[in-house]
Amino acid sequence: MYFTRNLTKLSLSSGRYLTPALCHFQSSGRHQNYNQGLQIQTRHFSYAESVSKLWMSLSNSVPVAYFQEGLIKLHDTTGLPWWGSIILSTVLLRTAVTVPLTIYQNKIMARIEMITQEMPEIAKELKWETAIAMKQFNWTEREAKIMYAHSLKKQWTKLVVRENCHPAKSFIVLWGQIPMWIFQSMAIRNLVYMLPDPSSLQAEIIFAQLSLGGFLWIPNLTVPDASFILPVALGIINLAIVEIQSLSRVRQGGRLHKYATNFFRFFSIFMIPIACTVPSCLSLYWVTSSAFGLIQNLTMMSPKFRRAVGIPVTPSQLEHPYKHLADGVSQRVQKISSWLPKRG
């Protein structure tokens, strides 16, 4: 039984915030003359200056310094060209940070889904107990609804504590991946612009190596990709990740999920012109990170892999996820084709 049987009285109180009265003061002529003689000085803030200060503070931050030093040590230790060092560092960081976080996040989401299956039975019993309590304690319908909602929330909290699966933990990948992406991007940017000390010999040597250590169609890693191959690849890969996550869902999401999906679609396209303006070594990092994310998402769909890493089996898990994904892509292509004008 979820209600306390020795409950004897339920007291409810309600109130409103009172709007404080406005007080009007009249100043003496001497104060008025004094106030009129004051000159109000306004401070003009420059948006560009504020953004520049933000970038500089972030560029000189301790986490960025650690990422930058780690990238330099990896390059010096392996002897790889800078494009190879950037790719290798990205793979190592994603493997060490985002893969464990993604596995943990999937475990949390699986536990949340499992305890969600227990809630209908609990809600049914709570409704029965609420009906009895209404007669026993002479509750009004409003009081009964309040007690029912409070008890239901309490039981949900107990289940969350029991399984250690607070819903906030389902965003743990974002908490780890976004800061890492920002710090690594700033570290690579520092190498290109010889920061934080442009006069140091090490900064000049690294800049020269980046200028001459390109690959294939990008001989110079300090300039944007003139062929637009990396920026377009970045947009396509990010869009593929968004569509895979959308198509792999068994249940259709609500309005919030649709808004989030459309936002990430827009953001994926928005990153293309940005990648066209940044140094190609930075675009290379973004493309490598997104490609790793695409492979990671596809791998996490595998039932064998999920069982191997200890992710609980849930009712929504697909037995043949890749077939489901292929069917979804096929339906999406047919839908887009139907919009195109037919020849003849």
Structure in words:
With 344 residues, the protein is mostly helical. Helix content is 69%, strand content 0%. The protein contains twelve helices and no strands. It has helices at residues 29-37, 47-59, 62-78, 82-137, 141-163, 172-192, 201-212, 229-247, 255-275, 280-300, 303-308, 321-339. Helix 4 packs antiparallel against helix 6 (172-192). The longest helix is centred in the N-terminal third of the chain and has 56 residues, at 82-137. The N and C termini lie far apart (71 Å). Mean pLDDT is 82; it is low at 1-44.
Written as H for each helix and E for each strand, in order along the chain, the element string is: HHHHHHHHHHHH
Cα radius of gyration in angstroms = 29 Å
Q: How far apart are the first and last residues' alpha carbons, in Å?
A: 71 Å
List low-confidence stretches.
Answer: 1-44
DSSP strand count? 0
The backbone outline, from C-alpha atoms, is: elongated
| Structural class by SSE content | mainly alpha
Summary of the model, kept short:
The protein is mainly alpha-helical and 344 residues long. It is built from 12 helices and no strands.
Question: Helices, strands, pairings?
Answer:
Elements: H1 29-37, H2 47-59, H3 62-78, H4 82-137, H5 141-163, H6 172-192, H7 201-212, H8 229-247, H9 255-275, H10 280-300, H11 303-308, H12 321-339
Helix pairs in contact: 3-4, 3-6, 4-5, 4-6, 4-10, 6-10, 8-9, 8-10
